[in-house]
Amino acid sequence: MQFDQILQYTLSGLSTGAIYALIGIGFSIIYNATGIINFAQGEFVMLGGLLTLSCLNVLKLPLWAAIPCAIAVSTLVGILFERLAIRPLRHPTPINLVIITIGGSILLRGLAMLVWGKDTHSVPPFSGDAPIAIGGATILPQHIWILAITLIIIFINKIYFYHTISGKAMRACSYNRRAAGLVGIDVKRMVLFSFIISSAMGAVAGIIVAPLTMTAYDVGIMLGLKGFCAAIIGGMSSGLSTVIGGLILGVLESLGAGLISSGYKDAIAFIILLLILFFRPQGLFGKADSERV
Amino acid sequence: MKRNFLLFIGFSVLVMLAPQYFRGGYMMNVLVFVGINTMLAIALNLLLGYAGQISLGHAGFFGLGAYLSGIMTTTFSLNPWLAMPLAAIAVGCLAFMIGFPVLKLKGHYLAMATLGLGIIFFIIFNETYEWTGGPSGLSGIPYLELGGISFDTDVKNYYLIWAFTLAVMLFSLNLASSRVGRALRAVHDSEVAAQVLGVNARLLKVQIFALSAIISSLAGSLYAHTMTFISPTSFGFNFSIELLTMVVIGGLGSIYGSFLGAALLTLLPEILRGANDYDIIIYGGLLMVMVMYMPGGLVRGIPALFRKLTGRKGGADHA
Amino acid sequence: MNFKVMPFVMAAVTLLFSVNVFAAAPIRIGALFAVTGPAAFLGEPERNSAQMVVDEINRTGGVKGQKLELVVYDTSGDATKAVQLATKLIKDDKVVAIIGPSTTGETMAVIPVAERGHVPLISCSAGSKITDPVKRWVFKTAQNDSLAVGRIYEYLQKTGQTKVSILTVSDGFGASGREQLKSQAAKYGITIVSDDTYGPKDTDMTAQLTKMRGTNTQAIICWGTNPGPAVIAKNVRQLGIKTPLFMSHGVSSKKFIELAGDSAEGIKIPSGKVVVADMLPASDKQKKSLMAFVRDYKKHYSAEGDHFGGHAWDAIMLIRNAINNGAGTAAAIRDQLESTRGFAGIGGTFNYSPQDHAGLGKDAFVLVEVKNKDWMIVK
């Protein structure tokens, strides 16, 4: 009985963790290309889910058409955000960047509230909701979709960043912006690309999790924060480290809720964050950073 | 020096005369909250504007002060005038201890660490219901009393709160123009350079963090004794962001700016009252616009705008 | 300016002023609702219902020849704002009564303001401690959550399912329910074998449910408002848990069934009668008010009139009846409210008294069950 319970906690935690991982990678990509922590990342997750809903119900599109549509619109919003909010910033100090992205997230949330109302909405699962038994635990088909799609995205990410010119250019920007500019990389365009990729990924995360958790205008806040924790655990990498960070976070949360106390579940994520920041700020897998004076 | 002194006296006089103008109406209630928010904004400004350390969790210290004072005066029937300083000291010690590991971090990492702290405090307020009443809140907190007068109306609370606020303002203004203030600004500009010149940057940052927490705790206790009821939702992440907005909009590193920011953000819901569902959009938009076009805050932006419009040249722009 | 025009201008101005003087000033009723924010599912239907009733009353000539004016302020579920706005209603808008707020937390904060300002407050929130102990100026129209808990426990005692697990949301509504669930258990012979909570925005409660599955619980009681309970219902189905599931009146709406889908079948809740209005026998005293409310809400807002909107409806009607009986000032309205007997409203039949400002009894709740995607009364 005990083992079955732990298995259940772990499986549930893995799928939640996969979502955190996707969001965390979104954070990392923008951070690596621009040095900005985009507090509005969670809102793209929210947009993904709500836009899919509209495509299904208002435009009456079938699921396989609604999803790309939703991703496209979210990406558009991401581009607008970069153009209107980030690029014109004249004094990009960390404080200003934090505030502008926070302001952006509030704005997006407010607009979403106007368009979709304050209600929670349900989105149909991709392939039904008959529970699947694994050992003594059960998961839903949607969980498998989440894990599968996350793996695919990681794979695509790896190929893009390591085997395409623009991907390599983005990595160059993250190592040293000035040097990248000197070898002819259009840094401004890389910034735009990073926002495109992150908003698309956020939207995907929102779409695949919405059938499980339902969606509303304010789902972005907590998801964004937890995704950021995942990114920190993974050392702000845009690859496997953050994924593992997210999975660890999800599983620890689930185990904590089941075995210790359900009320303090959220505190677990933030305590882990603080511990990592205090004792290993480069993340579990990163190398120690040296600071320019 | 003299000019600053006169400015402060003038401001204090305005504050003391305001109740005559508003004649005990609804505005008095709003102005009480402006006072509390000004105190909080100044506390955050000392940390953020002067020392340059981001904190996204200051609502936590505010809440801690409110709950400690509230619990001590209800469960333990302590005199509020004893509970408030005890709470402030406790919060100060806690902040001092947490400050050492937290303030080793910089920039975004510091922001996230303080964010996490703030949320952890909130969860503790929510979960420890035997002490705090949990989500249902803590009620029956007594009013403050002094020499037979009970501070139970808006007008009386106005004078009480603003007496404290003006004291905090005076203290901060003095601090800013003292040796400590210069050391803080040095740390803000370049921590390493300041250390080379003999400033113990690490200790100074923690001391300011603790001071900021103490002022916030005091504001929290005063809040508890004026509202007589507190609940965790007033001390969450949203309020930390509101405080940050007040400081930034008013002007980093300016005490009067903190007052401007606090006043504007407390009064904004009044001005926007017709536009209910739209106010959250306006709020976010305002934040973004201010940071993009007036990053020095109102206290610098408005004179600059004025100068630009009237075509006047010159005027050194210093913090 | 042409001086010949002056007499006409003077006449027009005098006419304007005199029109103001002769028209009877409307009676101002204040309202504090959480129309935006986390409690919007309460505040929005409450505001809609209140506005609808006031409009209907004014359309048919008002009360005793005077029109009603509703001054609504949105508190966003924030206790600090609620206090500020309550002060504004009393000092600036000079209302004769205040209805709301929507949540227990806000109500507790506003009570001192109403008591000091000598203005009757009719709260639309469920917390028992709002009227217990009784405060002179404070009333409520929402059923006490103690009554809801009593309904469930009564049923469980009858069917012998006395070992329960509780899962409550960590906000004001859930915390109040949890308090009641724990304090009334002994009275009905119920033992609570496990006690867990979840956050209002949590998306996965399988951990808590898995823990419950490992105990010998005979019933699971979930106390919260959408979307949490819908997630819990889905999780229960996913985990294959067969233990009967009970929930609170917080989900007594079609919306819950829509969100939970197939997982909602068989869930039982204590509910105000409004969700099963059309199934009530004609002899039920509340049937007339209920059917009118459902019909009017649908006409005005093209949506289902629900349990929460009903609280505001009751509050306005109570004030209207008070004014009809001759009360004009705040104090007089308070006295009239206190002597209201047998008012068949949406929440139940109200009988106020100097010792009871909550006014409702056990008939305020019926036990209903989800069958075929709709609510049915449990016999």
Detailed description of the structure:
The complex is a heterotrimer of chains A (293), B (319) and C (379). By secondary structure, chain A is mainly α. Chain A has helices spanning 2-34, 41-57, 63-86, 94-116, 141-163, 165-175, 177-182, 187-213, 220-233, 240-260, 265-279, and strands at residues 132-134, 137-139. Chain A has a single domain, classed as ABC transporter involved in vitamin B12 uptake, BtuC. Helices cover 73% and strands 2% of the residues of chain A. Chain A has a two-stranded antiparallel ribbon with strand order 1-2. In chain A, helix 2 packs parallel to helix 4 (94-116). The longest helix of chain A is centred in the N-terminal third of the chain and has 33 residues, at 2-34. Chain A is globular, with a radius of gyration of 19 Å. The relative contact order of chain A is 0.21. Chain B is an all-alpha fold and 319 residues long. Chain B has one domain. Chain B is built from 14 helices and 4 strands. Chain B has a two-stranded antiparallel ribbon with strand order 1-4. A two-stranded antiparallel ribbon of chain B has the order 2-3. The radius of gyration of chain B is 20 Å and the shape is globular. Chain B starts with a helix and ends in a 10-residue tail after the last helix. Chain C has 379 residues and is an alpha/beta fold. Chain C folds into 2 domains: 27-143 and 286-364, Response regulator (Rossmann fold, 3-Layer(aba) Sandwich); 146-271, Rossmann fold, CATH 3.40.50.2300. In chain C, strand 1 (27-33), helix 2 and strand 2 form a beta-alpha-beta unit. The longest helix of chain C is centred in the first third of the chain and has 20 residues, at 40-59. Chain C is globular, with a radius of gyration of 23 Å.
Helices, strands, pairings?
The complex is a heterotrimer of chains A (293), B (319) and C (379).
Chain A: H1 2-34, H2 41-57, H3 63-86, H4 94-116, E1 132-134, E2 137-139, H5 141-163, H6 165-175, H7 177-182, H8 187-213, H9 220-233, H10 240-260, H11 265-279
Helix pairs in contact in A: 1-5, 1-6, 1-8, 1-9, 1-10, 2-3, 2-4, 2-8, 2-9, 3-8, 5-6, 5-8, 6-8, 9-10, 9-11, 10-11
Chain B: H1 2-22, H2 26-50, H3 58-74, H4 80-102, H5 107-127, H6 129-132, E1 138-139, E2 145-146, E3 149-150, H7 154-176, H8 179-189, H9 191-196, H10 201-227, E4 229-230, H11 237-250, H12 255-271, H13 279-293, H14 298-309
Antiparallel strand pairs in B: 1-4, 2-3
Chain C: H1 6-22, E1 27-33, H2 40-59, E2 68-74, H3 79-91, E3 97-99, H4 104-117, E4 121-123, E5 138-140, H5 145-159, E6 163-169, H6 172-184, E7 191-198, H7 206-213, E8 219-223, H8 228-239, E9 245-247, H9 254-260, E10 268-271, H10 287-301, H11 307-324, H12 330-338, E11 343-344, E12 349-350, E13 366-371, E14 374-377
Parallel strand pairs in C: 1-2, 1-3, 3-4, 4-5, 6-7, 6-8, 8-9
Antiparallel strand pairs in C: 10-13, 11-12, 13-14
Helix pairs in contact in C: 2-11, 3-4, 5-6, 8-9, 11-12
